[in-house]
Amino acid sequence: MSVDVSVVFPTYNEAENIVTLIRRTDNALQNYNREIIVMDDDSPDKTWLLAQNEKNPRVKVVRRINKRKLVTAIQEGIDAANGKVVVWMDADLSMPPELIPKLLARMNRADIVVGSRYAPGGRDKRPLLRVLSSRFINTIANLVLNFNVLDYDSGFVAAKKEVFSKLRLNDSGYGEYCIEFLFHAGKKGYKIKEVGYAFTDRRAGESKTAESLYGLFKYGMMYLHKIFSLRFGSRKK
User: What confidence tier does 67 reach under pLDDT thresholds 50, 70, 90?
Assistant: First the structure.
């Protein structure tokens, strides 16, 4: 059976969220031939086992031993995907799987569709400091990279599988991979659209991103370095 859409969840210690996430995603996509791919980095809380215990034939679980890298988990999930469109997103329920059909609906006019906190209709409902830092990074990215993307480090992306015959996710840092992917996709002429949605903080489990002022500054500097190296470093080649 052909698969319309593959949804990739990179997971590490998401036992409190994974079952709800799988069920909501499967329900949201009931009008599509779909598969859900859980790429778990051998979670001590046995996220992978809970996903397996769902015994849903549309769910594939890959337990990656001795690995803990977000980007390689996503890329390996993309490689394993059979769908004409591949979606990846966080597994902490901060991103609503109910948005996926809206992303897919835009694929008739795009190669890549981004679930966006900052496009019309979008909202970032996290604490103010995190919102301001993210807004700042994305404003700089929009000005410097010049591809009219409002949420460069979204991490909630749908892309035609054929895109990955020419592009792969670069395992650099944390959220920088998304900035780099969208930049190179734009450079290659792929059409990118955005769909706004309300982004919330995780409700359960431990955050994998920076929470302190120092952490936000550290990651912010890494993101800025990536943005400027993409824009100006390419001129040297």
Answer: confident
